[in-house]
């Protein structure tokens, strides 16, 4: 099930907003379960990659409360976005990562009204807006192409979004793992990933284990962020 809707729906897309993503997933499962004569069930497993991994984890946290009529059996997350503040900092070293940070700030500006001028250098604001309004199909190739058209400087931010209110409040609120996940969790991470760094995912797994979540963690060398969905599948 997808966390993104087609054009035409009202309002901005709430990118990297965990509760919105989880609600979209659960609404989709509920809608499918309600269709007659297709053999659908209210029992499901949620899977996601990158932002979708964050969505899967938040679905695990919120399913019991938001959709008690559904039965979540497990959560699968491939290179998930977890500790957002650290990921923002790490991502500024890569072209694709800078684009993802720009997309996040643009989305939060539209959703919450936080002024971009408080977070982004004035010369970079038009480029951040252009990136935010562009649709991408493949996670890395399109991102690098997008950034190469008019590169963002390494330090295009005026602040650290993880430390400066009000951006910091939203960053902290959308880190998964702050509520229990009561079903088994499988997390896959490629050790050559340059967008979601392995150390961030490893620390998140440690946090889940400390909270008595049942976790299986798969670490695989040599491959990067775009290849993990198909290569981590059974």
Notable characteristics:
alpha/beta; Rossmann fold; 2 domains; 4-stranded parallel β-sheet; 4 strands
Quickly describe the structure.
It contains nine helices and four strands. By secondary structure, the protein is α/β, with parallel strands linked by helices.
Characterization of this structure:
This protein is an alpha/beta fold and 234 residues long. It folds into two domains: 18-83 and 175-231, Rossmann fold; 85-171, no CATH class. Helices cover 42% and strands 12% of the residues. Strand 1 (43-49), helix 2 and strand 2 form a beta-alpha-beta unit. Helix 1 (18-33) packs across helix 2 (51-66) and helix 4 (95-112) crosses helix 6 (141-149). It is globular, with a radius of gyration of 18 Å.
Gyration radius, rounded? 18 Å
- How many helices in DSSP terms? 9
Low-confidence stretches: none
Fourth CATH level, the homologous superfamily of the largest domain: Alpha/Beta hydrolase fold, catalytic domain
Work out the strand percent.
5-15%
CATH architecture of the largest domain: 3-Layer(aba) Sandwich
The biggest beta sheet reads:
4 strands, parallel
Query: How far apart are the termini?
Result: 19 Å
Overall pLDDT metric:
85
Kindly provide the name of the CATH class of the largest domain: Alpha Beta
User: CATH topology of the largest domain, anyone?
Assistant: Rossmann fold
Number of strands: 4
Count of the domains: 2
Q: Strands of the largest sheet, in order across it?
A: 1-2-3-4
Order of helices and strands: HEHEHHHHHEHEH
Q: Please bin the fraction of helical residues.
A: 40-55%
């Amino acid at each position: 099930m997808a966390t993104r809707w087609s054009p035409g729906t009202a309002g901005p897309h709430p990118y990297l907003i965990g509760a919105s993503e989880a609600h979209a997933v659960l609404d989709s499962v509920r809608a499918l379960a309600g269709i007659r004569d297709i053999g659908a069930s209210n029992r499901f497993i949620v899977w996601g990659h990158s932002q979708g991994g964050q969505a899967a984890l938040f679905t695990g946290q919120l399913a019991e409360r938001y959709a008690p009529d559904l039965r979540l059996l497990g959560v699968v997350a491939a290179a998930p976005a977890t500790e957002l503040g650290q990921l923002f900092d790490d991502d500024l070293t890569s072209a694709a990562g800078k684009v993802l940070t720009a997309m996040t700030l643009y989305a939060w500006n539209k959703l919450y009204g936080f002024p971009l001028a408080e977070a982004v250098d004035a010369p970079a604001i038009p480029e951040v807006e252009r990136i935010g309004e562009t649709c991408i199909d493949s996670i890395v190739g399109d991102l690098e192409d997008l950034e190469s058209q008019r590169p963002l400087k390494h330090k295009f931010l005026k602040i650290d979004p993880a430390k400066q209110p009000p951006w910091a409040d939203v960053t902290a609120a959308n880190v998964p793992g702050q509520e229990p996940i009561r079903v088994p969790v499988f997390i896959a991470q490629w050790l050559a990933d340059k967008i979601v760094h392995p150390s961030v995912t490893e620390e998140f797994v440690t946090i889940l284990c400390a909270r008595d979540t049942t976790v299986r963690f798969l670490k695989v060398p040599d491959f990067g962020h775009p290849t993990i969905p198909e290569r981590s599948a059974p």
